[in-house]
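seq as requested:
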Amino acid sequence: MSEGFKTKSEEIEDSLEFCRDIDIYYKGGKNETPSSPAFSYKPVYVNAPDTSGYAPEENYESVTSVIISNIIHLLVCVVIAAVISRGINKYILQQVSVDGSSMEASLYDGDRLLMNKFDYRFNDPKRFDIVIFPFEDDVYLIKRVIGLPGETVQIIDGYVYINGEFLQNDIYCDDTIETAGTAMQPLKLGDDEIFVLGDNRNNSLDSRYTAVGNIKLSDIMGKAFYRVYPFDRLGKVE
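struct tokens:
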């Protein structure tokens, strides 16, 4: 018979020897060297590396700590952003909406504006600034500054006069004023007062009426300076 092949009896003997080796191994003879070449086993290492695909317990704790740290960091950033936003809204910039037609044709109903609340903390309003001030509970008015502190305002024949002189630079109204109101007679402003008018002079509740009157400097909330909506008229407020 060719080399490398076993007889039937040899195969049976090898099988019996393999079974005896298994029996010796499991009955406590693990230190004995099995006689069968077909029988072998791999030693089990107590400290063998974990190759199961799962992270050890300490890794889970580390990942959890990182997640918690990131969440805390995110919450801190949100709080800081909220505080900064609130501070900006209260002391620097605030968005306001125009309601009504009293400032046409400079501003229109539905316009959204940015109000500068910072400038008047250091400077007084200038003539022709557009200012916002409280009128009633939760109601605010937006008008244009015409008379400055200490000046005398009067409306004569539909036109504004300051200290007895015609206000030539008042280019924001094309119509003559039909109602002079309290400015029919010379109206002296206090050192802390301004006189305001709407650009739509014949359809505006402003300083000509006792319901509004002269505006205290301390009551001015800020100056409208930039239109953010509608987008086709985006830009600086005249």
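Residues 172 and 199 are 6 Å apart (CA to CA).
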